[in-house]
Amino acid sequence: MKIIKAQSLTFILYFMVLLCVQSEAQSKLWKTKDAYLGQLPPNDTPKIFARNIIEGSGVVLGRVAFSKNGKEFYYTYSKHWFDNDDSGVKQILFNGTSWDHPKVIVEKLANPALSKDEKTMYLGGISSEVWKSARSNETWSKPVLFLEQKYGLYNFQPTKSGTYYMGSNGNQGSKKDYSTYDFCTLIMTKKDTIVRSLGAPLNTPGFDGDLFVAPDESYMIVSANETKTYECELHISFREGDTWSKPVSLGDLINHGPAHRFGQYVSPDGKYLFYTKGTSETDCHIYWVRFDKLLKNMKKQKRV
Question: 160, CA 20 to 30 Å: which among 35, 219, 256, 266?
């Protein structure tokens, strides 16, 4: 009996070591030439991301997502802007030696966001509702409706604390009145779903809905200074206790010229900012730019 127990203990220890080795190998992908779909990383000047890989006959747009180990990439495609008939989310996997071809995993949903444990993917619906899909290894289940309210639930994002962030008009206006959308938090309990606007100076009288919130909720990148024809800039706001600082521009290199800028997302390693930019669907692309150094400088300027 003692021999059997010893053998079992040895096997368990071996298995745990093997898992640690595999996890370490996966995390190192970020530091190799295969990271980020094998694309040459940008510096301070934004450039189009993986155009020859992710762009087909339609448009790529909205928020993207990488898994924490860097081996999975998700993005939204569409035939045209504001056309839900030929749209959905595609997945590209790293097989250990190279990246596979994109494949459709979800149709007519958009803006993938992974939960903290990466076992759930949240997706946005055309009627500003939230769907979710469950992970089974590297595949995903058929999405089911997760949350639908009389008010909007746009750009739904989870955080480490369990608080969700989104653009919503849960406190005012009708679901289709986008001018009433604010940057909000949402907390779900067994008894209620509580939406709270993050207030001024983060929110403005117009539409406030395109955002990326850091997993630790320390900062938020928002689409700001929106024009009547929906061009906007990317600004950053920092959390200050229970409030948020006034958003400031991420700089001329990112915000040069009028354009639609949305779908902002920071890679899990914190190094790069991804976002969608275009003056129309004909020049709409996903861009990326070095972000960790920019964030560090923005924090320094904030303390001055």
Answer: 35
